[in-house]
């Protein structure tokens, strides 16, 4: 029997305990032994539940118990998750976590400690919820040089954008609906400002390049400025607007960003709607692959943790060598990246188009009925070039990067 | 240095040699050692190429060379692939293959021999070309009870159906075009009659259930009877017609079939077009995931073989325990499966609808202009019930299973 401890009995933690029970036989067959939850660390009590007699409030009980060979961290946040996980690894226990903040901030150090202590530090559930992506990157695509990873990595914002697109809702209404359904937090900043997506693309970029990525170096723009008017134009163009985390690898550097991007119908991520996530991976030999599924939710995310538990316990005496080293990967500045731009501008196209084309050269104009504005799509140019040119025009109301 | 031998220097085999060379450093980093091709077994010579001095015509050179620790089988077919692979495993060499016919016919035996000799028999490339699916099933979804696998598993037929749908072509024209582009063989039977898809869904079903699947027990219907008229109706319904291989797992049995199925826009496989493949996996905890990418092609398929090479060589002294046992999984008869049915029938709806509804109960009628026929969609019923009822109506021209 293998004894594990679960730290944090919230949504994901209770999901892990539930799957360990419900899929007990399948899991035992894969591990080669039964897996039993010995402790659940939480500040609360859970009287009348199956974990009632497993609850402990003192972390030292877990870290000092030699019978516990693996710890599952589903507390979230950095304190006390970081010191607890570090202590578990140093005590020679395997750790699986669903905590993207922890992995993005301390992944390099924790991977190193795991290696030194010949244990495993696994984090499939930190990106893409139940979608297998971390493990495919280091197993299935192990022989590839990864050229690009682009994903819809946050279910909350994808739900909001889908509502705005399909039901013509404003950002505020769609956000309130997402909050009422429990998809968005009361304080939605981490999702809608793109911080969550930023940490996830940082982890994926580090996995793909093999080098540490400082998520603070990644340009991050959220969806709070996207309006129902933008979606009206998008509809007339047959396009959609999605919050993308994207990373293009070059030798020793990456272009990485998080921003809403207007994409066309033939983009593999176009049809990823609602709370679903999709992650597109381009390898130099493989071409484009896409992974699609539930990016969040109790059981899908817990299922990804379970896969880590099985891998760690199958390789109990062996360090699974994956992840990244502490050589920092250079993240190129946003100014040097190139896009097309969708721009909305005050006035009437018939009167102002000449002025626009004097600045931007040939553009594609788009007009909707009954508006005191029009829009245009530029050719591809660098962010630096766009910013410089945009200053020459008055009345610009919106610019959204476009790739189609 | 690890020495490998490649058996069969056709499309996939030469792709494997090419990637081993082009991504040499990445692969060496993952394996922890350089990988070198010592022999290439082929009946032909390849003067002036990089493998010129590695070509051997005698299999015994490979099997007897203790320096060769891994063999890659990319010959296809069963003879001599089967005896060669068997001999390699018995000689304690790891084997990776892209050969779905071999895996579907002899997988059970070869997995058993691999285990007995503590080596690995891996076949990621046998299903879905470059799309990672075999490995995710035994790693990422290891803790799941798989409830369903449904896929577009054959690029040739998907290309043909896409051409019929998008360009209004007949089956014959689309097939000829696929042949001209090299997507379809001169003798296209294995693809268009569904035999290729059948072997692939058999392998996936065995992986998901852990038990042997006899592909000959799987009902298999190809696309040769699908016409441009069917697609005209599909368009008016907002649906598509795709060749699906599908398997629904129950305790100790599976409902499995290969057939063209009419699916709606909200089906995750709806937008998988051209030569792309898509594989949808439903787990009891995870919900629905989808894997999408190039289902065929030299480098994508070879890339999947490379992932197997890396896994085998990283675990050189260890048997990776996956696959299935020799307990045959019962495949339920097609008669017991349930679908809706799209049916085309001679005559005029106004005159014959009453007769149709007397037999089938409430149906949804569909009429196109200028036709001497109409169509209808039944409610869900078993195949047995449909067949019985259909006999009561004269002039049925087509029936396609529908799921939407």
Give an overview in words.
Two copies of one chain form a homodimer. With 404 residues, chain A is an alpha/beta fold. Chain A folds into three domains: 2-129 and 299-322, Rossmann fold; 135-294, Dihydrodipicolinate Reductase, domain 2 (2-Layer Sandwich), CATH 3.30.360; 334-403, 2-Layer Sandwich (Alpha-Beta Plaits), CATH 3.30.70. Helix content of chain A is 36%, strand content 27%. Chain A contains 14 helices and 20 strands. Chain A has helices spanning 11-22, 24-31, 59-64, 81-90, 100-116, 134-138, 155-167, 171-180, 189-192, 195-209, 228-237, 298-314, 349-360, 383-390, and strands at residues 2-7, 35-41, 55-56, 68-73, 94-97, 121-122, 146-152, 211-212, 219-220, 239-250, 253-264, 276-283, 287-294, 325-328, 330-331, 338-346, 364-366, 373-377, 381-382, 396-403. In chain A, the strands form three sheets. In chain A, strands 7, 9, 10, 11, 12, 13, 15, 16, 17, 18, 19 and 20 form a twelve-stranded mixed beta sheet that branches. In chain A, strand 12 (276-283) and strand 13 form a beta hairpin. In chain A, helix 1 packs across helix 12 (298-314). Chain A is elongated, with a radius of gyration of 23 Å. Chain A starts with a strand and ends with a strand. The model of chain A has no long low-confidence stretch (mean pLDDT 95). At the A-B interface, helix 1, helix 2, strand 13 and helix 12 of A face helix 1, helix 2, helix 6, strand 13 and helix 12 of B.
């Amino acid at each position: 029997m293998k004894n594990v401890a679960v730290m944090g009995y919230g949504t994901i933690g209770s999901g892990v305990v539930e799957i360990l029970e419900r899929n007990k036989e399948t899991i035992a067959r894969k591990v080669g032994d039964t897996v039993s939850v010995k402790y659940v660390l939480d500040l609360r009590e859970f009287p009348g539940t199956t974990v009632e007699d497993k609850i402990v409030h003192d972390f030292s009980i877990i870290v000092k118990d030699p019978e516990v060979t693996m710890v599952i961290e589903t507390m979230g946040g950095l304190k006390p998750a970081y010191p607890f996980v570090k202590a578990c690894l140093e005590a020679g226990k395997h750790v699986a976590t669903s905590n993207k903040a922890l992995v993005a901030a301390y992944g390099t150090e924790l991977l190193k400690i795991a290696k030194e202590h010949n244990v495993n530090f696994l984090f499939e559930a930190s990106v893409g919820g139940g979608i297998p992506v971390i493990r495919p990157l280091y197993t299935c695509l192990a022989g590839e040089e990864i050229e690009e990873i682009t994903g819809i990595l946050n279910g909350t914002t994808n739900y909001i954008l889908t509502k705005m697109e399909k039901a013509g809702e404003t950002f505020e209404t769609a956000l309130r609906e997402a909050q009422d359904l429990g998809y968005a937090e009361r304080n939605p900043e981490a999702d809608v400002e793109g911080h969550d997506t930023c940490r996830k693309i940082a982890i994926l970029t580090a996995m793909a390049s093999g080098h540490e990525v400082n998520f603070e170096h990644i340009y991050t723009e959220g969806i709070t400025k996207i309006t129902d008017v933008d979606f009206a134009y998008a509809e007339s163009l047959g396009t959609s607007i999605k919050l993308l985390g994207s990373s293009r690898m070059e030798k020793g550097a990456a272009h990485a960003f998080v921003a809403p991007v207007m994409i066309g119908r033939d983009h593999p991520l176009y049809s990823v709607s609602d709370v679903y996530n999709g992650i597109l991976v381009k390898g130099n030999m493989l071409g484009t692959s896409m992974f699609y599924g539930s990016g969040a939710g109790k059981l899908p995310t817990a299922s990804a943790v379970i896969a880590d538990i099985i891998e760690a316990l199958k390789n109990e005496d062996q360090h699974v060598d994956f992840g990244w080293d502490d050589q920092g990967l250079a993240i190129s500045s946003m100014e040097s990246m190139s896009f097309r731009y969708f721009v909305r501008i005050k006035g009437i196209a018939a009167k102002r188009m000449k002025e626009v084309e004097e600045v931007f050269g040939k553009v594609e104009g788009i007009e909707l009925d009954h508006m005191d504005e029009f829009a245009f799509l530029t050719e591809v140019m660098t962010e630096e070039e766009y910013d410089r040119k945009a200053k020459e025009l008055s009345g610009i109301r919106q610019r959204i990067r476009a790739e189609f």
